[in-house]
Specification:
heterodimer, A: 306 residues, disordered N terminus, B: mainly alpha, MetI-like fold, 13 helices, 77% helix
Chain lengths: 306, 317
């Protein structure tokens, strides 16, 4: 191998007045091998994804029945269900959207439409792209320090409210970045047309820019929220409980969520619990596939070019 | 509001001016509210730094910073007079799983990026790219389950037998690598895509083959973006929590052996947080000290990646 490669190197040296002597056939042979390697690299991820989905489905689908959806967690695996986790995840989803969507879209509108080009704006931008790279568990520690301990009297401590605030801060950068990109694709003629008719900046934003940017922003919002549904680590740090035998009645109640319950089942050594975890994953992935297909449909339906 | 305006239109010649003054005030209020939304992100960063700093300082009142940074024993999960608080085993575990993930994710991600931008026909690309991005959307707890119940038994049966522990660094590292492929691929592809066509055509005109153009012209030209994608991928791996928490074990060992049980910084935090820990105890403080270390490491990586990205933007835009 090493001999042949040195030979190629020697041959390809343009000794006789700059003519290439490596055979074109050899070079094209390398090309074919290289193309094949690239194809393999592209497929590796997809193959693993397919194996993962099949593996989870084989384990989980036989466990699924209506009882699994409507029962509470139990020490008897046959009777265990995910009802409180499902309800907890829905609570988290509702509150997280309530906090993060207006904040994220507001911040994006400010940065894209109002913010002057100065060091403060650049600082905010660098800061947002940095926050997007902070590990999710660190957001959990932030929420533990601020929402659970410092503001525990307001939030109810280890509550749905604290959990959804942690998730909101976590997905805020994703929403801001997606909304800014949607606003940026709107041509300036729309803005200038509005001003020419005497509209103020806010009237142009409310009447024209926001409706036009909505599909793009909404796609980003749905992707961000589906990330929030699947997040486990920050909720564990905030202190979601695994065995909850009641349904939360308000945002200041203790809670559990689907990923938390799955994590708890995965850690049990017994085979039955592993199968329960797989069934929980099937439900979780089902929810995610629904939300993601909706996002893709939305993007294809409203994608416009100006 | 509208009733008032129409009434004023008859009697008050100054109505437009009043109206416009109202509009000016409303504009100011709206701008202020929107700016406040943008400042929430700055507050978040301040919050993270302050919370981590405060509790970390609490921790260093009880444990010396020298011990924390140099001792190779971490027994914080069992607090007592003999407990040792050296973070190196957790750092070693984190770097080990990260390295394994990088062996998978960096070449595969770059290969996929080159294939998508240079080789794949437009129709195929439109399908492949979103399909790859699904990998980044799968919740990490699902990957953890997959690593523990599928990859580890597979590795034991096919390659290592009993030498591979039930909880180990290898299996979560490999699965984490697969998870990071789309991160590396999509950032690399953006920068490869930004390489001007004229460079490729110049090389073709000199008789280069497609592979030679890809490896000797396009990749070097897009190098800063590719480096940025690598560093971003590494930063993801360093901060990844659930895969290792599920499949890596809870034994903080100062080892480079991927077949053994390990603990990373993030999975230590999960282990402590999922038990009962009261505020003020030293165990409670350790998770913030470990979190601080994790935060600083990913912050440095993210800043380096940001600088690389900015360089490639300056070159071609």
């Amino acid at each position: 191998m090493s001999q042949s490669s040195t030979e190629v190197a020697r041959q390809s040296k343009p000794e006789d007045g700059g003519t290439y002597t490596t055979s074109v056939g050899v070079r094209h042979g390398f090309d074919r091998i290289f193309t094949l390697l690239l194809l393999v690299a592209t497929c590796v991820g997809l193959v693993v994804l397919a194996v993962l989905l099949v593996d989870v489905a084989l384990d989980g689908v036989p466990e699924l029945d209506w009882q699994f959806i409507t029962n509470f967690p139990s020490v008897i695996p046959e009777k265990a269900g995910i009802l409180p986790a499902l309800v907890g995840s829905l609570w988290l989803l509702a509150l997280t959207s309530l906090f993060s969507v207006p904040l994220g879209i507001g911040a994006a509108v400010y940065l894209e439409e109002y913010a002057p080009d100065n060091w403060l704006t650049r600082l905010i931008e660098v800061n947002i792209s940095n926050l997007a790279g902070v590990p999710s568990i660190v957001y959990g520690l932030l929420a533990l320090g601020v929402f659970v301990q410092l503001l525990g009297g307001l939030t109810g401590g280890r509550s749905i409210l604290s959990g959804s605030l942690a998730l909101s801060l976590l997905i805020l950068p994703i929403i801001i970045i997606a909304t800014r990109e949607a606003l940026r694709t709107i041509p300036d003629t729309v803005r200038e047309g509005g001003y020419a008719l005497g509209a103020t900046q806010w009237e142009v934003i409310r009447g024209h820019l926001l409706p036009m940017a909505l599909p793009g922003a909404l796609t980003g919002v749905i992707l961000a929220l589906s990330r929030a549904i699947g997040e486990t680590a920050p909720l564990i740090v905030v202190g979601a409980a695994a065995y909850v035998t009641f349904l939360p009645a308000g945002p200041r109640d203790r809670f559990t969520a689907m990923p938390i319950l799955i994590f708890d089942w995965v850690r049990e050594a017994q085979e039955e619990y592993q199968l329960l975890a797989a069934a929980g994953i099937v439900v979780l992935m089902g929810v995610l596939i629904l939300t993601n297909s909706f996002a893709i449909w939305l993007r294809n339906r409203y994608q416009r070019r100006y | 509001m509208s009733v008032e305006t129409s009434r004023g239109a008859k009697s008050d010649p100054q109505v437009w001016q009043r109206e416009s003054r109202g509009r000016v005030i409303r504009e100011r209020i709206v701008k202020g509210v929107l700016a406040a939304c943008a400042y929430v992100s700055v507050l978040t960063t301040f919050g993270i730094v302050l919370v981590l700093l405060e509790e970390t300082l609490q921790f260093f009142r009880k444990v010396s910073i020298v011990e924390f940074l140099t001792s190779t024993t971490w027994t914080a999960a069992f607090p007592g007079p003999n407990a040792e608080y050296g973070i190196l085993p957790l750092v070693a575990g984190t770097l080990l799983t990260t390295a394994i993930a990088c062996v998978v994710a960096l070449p595969v991600g770059l290969g996929a990026a080159i294939f998508l931008s240079e080789y794949a026909p437009v129709g195929l690309r439109r399908w492949l790219k979103p399909a790859l991005e699904i990998l980044a959307g799968v919740p990490t707890i699902v990957y953890g389950f997959f690593a523990l119940t599928f990859v580890t038994p597979l590795l034991q049966d096919v390659f290592f037998g009993n030498k591979l522990y039930g909880f180990n660094a290898l299996s979560p590292g490999l699965v984490m690598g697969v998870m990071i492929i789309p991160t590396v691929a999509s950032v690399s592809e953006d920068s490869i895509y930004a390489v001007p066509r004229s460079l490729r055509e110049g090389a073709y005109a000199l008789g280069a083959t497609k592979r030679e153009v890809a490896t000797k012209i396009v990749v070097p030209a897009a190098l800063s973006g590719i480096m940025a994608s690598f560093i971003l991928g590494i930063s993801r791996a360093v901060g990844e929590t659930m895969i290792v928490a599920v499949a890596g074990g809870t034994l903080a060992q100062f080892t480079a052996n991927p077949l053994q049980s390990i603990q990373t910084m993030a999975s230590y935090i999960v282990q402590v947080a999922s038990g009962e820990t009261s505020r003020g105890s030293i165990t409670y403080d350790t998770i913030f000290a470990v979190g601080m270390t994790l935060f600083v490491m990913t912050l440095v990586l993210n800043i380096i990646s940001y600088l690389f990205v900015r360089r490639f933007r300056e070159t071609y835009e």
